User: Fold these one by one.
Assistant:
Number 1:
Amino acid sequence: MASKQFKQKKEDITMNKKILALFLALAVSASAFGQANISPAKAQTKKVILLGGVVHTGNGQVINNGYVVFEKGKITGVGDATTVRFATNDGEMINVNGKHVYPGFIAPVNTLGLVEYESIKATLDFQEIGNLNPHIRSLVAYNTDSKVPATLRSNGVLMAQIRPSGGAISGSSSIVQLDAWNWEDAAVKTDDGMHVNWPTTPRFRGFARPGFSAESMAERTQAAILELNSFFAEAKAYNEGAKPAETNTRMAAMAKLFKGEQKLYISANTQKDIVAAVNFAKKFNITPIIIGGSEAYLITDFLKQNNVPVIVNQPHSLPSSVDDDVNMPYKNTAILYNAGVTVAVSINDFWQQRNLPFMAGTVATWGLDKEKALQTITLNTAKILGIDKTTGSLEVGKDATLFISTGDALDMKTNKVEKAFIQGRDINLDNLHKQLDKKFSDKYTIK
């Protein structure tokens, strides 16, 4: 009997090894199937002049026949092309007549560069074990060799805020530009904010499973909120008191938040949860930023009075309540914007980030004009993230992070990015999807 069990165990180990080998082979083949990594562009060496075309400054202004000049990575001139003359030897002259110039789009709150293959655990680095992880830094896990960022650049998304997820306190996010050798080169703003997932009670429809009654789930939610309160109070006392002999890394990681050097991002959707989250933050003298906000349109006065920005998530989604207008996710952003709330637009996951411009395009058809919708992925996002002094719009003194499109960049039928610059560097717009398109177009072209 023992001999039979030993034989079976040996066969199981052999089978597990074969399965592991298969997964590793798939991972290697998937990597080999992707394009060779594209080297980041070199620093700008000569002045560039974009002349003619429609310049969308990102702050609401449109110059129908405009120019943009940048040198050493910074914008040195923006204006009406009919009022100036440039010498042909003044720099690299690029004719953009009939085209559109935009500030680079910014994708907030996502796991870009932290996930590569969702089916292969070794490539997932967006979540840590445990419930309270303020010491986790997403930036050090950011993979600049990922195949995904190049697909975003081709649609005008040139910057992103990468964040960890999971647990009540997920850790710190950082803002990166999408053309870099490593995470140190990529960093635009390091550890810009701490991310909290507000505990919420699921809405029950129909019959709940045994042990998961509305009452029991509400109790769990309340216990989770009390745990958050306790941790924040302890962390505040720890960082304001005398320096201890031994450092508590979790508590010490909260120091920047209490000093006002870091923002607090709270993921919450229902009206009740948003109010509770804001009041929670105010107890610690912090003004939070709400992520999600599917019912934020119901409390615009409250948000405005408390100066709380909102990053609306996934406009292309179903309403959060069965009583909501079916188009409410499309209209939410416009209602907040028109009420005076600072609002930006985001989208789920990492591959989906390339569709961010089209989320803003949807918003533009449900209550906002195109230039205001553009601000929800440019200047408004930069303001919320705290980087508006250097990016988010085409203004003198800001980084030359911008792109040229042959058509309206918020419309998927006309968004065609011809050229893009990050901090003045002329970046490569090739990507895996373009290579696959060419490969199979060549194969099936009728001769």
Number 2:
Amino acid sequence: MAERARYSPSPYHKARPSNTVGATPRPDKTVCGRPALPECQDAADLLKAGILRGMTSTQVRHGWPQNVWAIDDEGIVYEAQLGNSELGEYHGYPMKADDPFARVVRKEWEGR
């Protein structure tokens, strides 16, 4: 599953355009816009790492978990959401630092 899952960036979570997607950030969404912004390969690697660690939701659509969580080298917690359940495509974004579930993800990530 980890090898077949694909990262597909969402313009809603981009602070600035990249070479793969434009930027149309929405005020109700968190954005990736920090200097160490994970580009597509880094985001794909985080998606794969989350799946391999079993950091997935119990809700499944067409064999794909609805959500996958991962933490990057800087300690930022990310959530990926299934966008296309036929192809296993996900878009991801940083979770808000004060999100209580981010603490749960951090604890689980460190224990796996």
Number 3:
Amino acid sequence: MSKMKSVKFEHERLSREESVIRGKSFYELMKRRRSIRHFSPEKFDRSLLELAVRTAGTAPSGANKQPWKFIIVESPELKKEIRIAAEKEEKESYEQRMPQSWLDDLAPLGTDWHKEFLEIAPYLIVVFKIDYLKTDSEIKKHYYVNESVGLASGLLLASLQNMGLVTLTHTPSPMNFLRKILNRPANEKPFLLIPVGFPAENTEVPDIKKKEFNEICEII
């Protein structure tokens, strides 16, 4: 088995003080991140999204297969088509598919099947996962695809937050309509639909609380 060529790892060793400052600053930044459903239609420099996708592309992945594809949608026609298809699935989910326990959990958040933000937000980022690559002679499987794409999506959201943009992680189910509308190949499956932009004026969000540190972490 041939061994991959190695290169020197470049690492900046920080002082404890600098590490604490950076850690606290990033925590405070991410603590302000919220899921936004009321967007301004105001456009912004698309290069910000390109930078965020580049950041997402640095995520670790199984066997370094990088099994992701990010589609940036700015066409009003495509956004409208996506909204119509998403609302069709969401309406059926809210009225027929979701058990009452799920509806009860969603009720305090005030969500329903109407998804007008899919048209109002200036951009949508559709994240696809790639289960395999197919050549003329063989199929090359990818590994830990969901985990890898989840990590990349987390970096994408953090990068967008860092640039002063707001987002929503939208997952209409099923999402196969996205592959059809965006004309993606069979080996790509929709993973996440992310409206991106600025919040509408006077936007409000539910007064939710995150779990305390000792609820999400144990030191043993």
Number 4:
Amino acid sequence: MHFRFMFLLLGSLNAIALGGIGAAASISEERDNNAYYFVSHYEIRIDAAPAEIWPHLIDLGSWMYEFEVAPVSGNYGEAGYVVQLYPDQPFYVQITRAIPNRLLTIANLPSTIRGETSTGVGVITLSESAGGTTVNLTMSRRYEVLSDEGAELKAARASNEFRQNDAAMWKDRFLTRLKERSESATK
């Protein structure tokens, strides 16, 4: 286990708790090899109770609609459930913890694609208050560059344009889709 990986994730969660960040992303490098971390956090307020959001949240393909989510193994929505995100790439995520209406953790299983290896973890929390729910999504991913193509991806992730595109995908499209699906189900 990479302790720096966990430190970055915990540091991000601490910043979220202290600062109430709506969207943020950062990149940091390891000193001893050609690896780096990309950590991002997004949150959205949904006018629905956690119990109304949960069925949509665990249906990953319903709100992460740009991925082609295909079940691989395990029981739908439970710890151990594995899905493939791209039909032509060996990129898999696994639900590692599911506490209904409160917490969903997802691991990006180790993969080697486009000149880099990667692993990661996503933490999604639901916090109810004042008749609605705040959904927080924090992701920490570790990449190791293996080739020039991987180096190009690293350079792209360090750019402001990539951060804007990441926010547009996760907050503006995916989390907004979760919000729309959850709120329309309560009407």
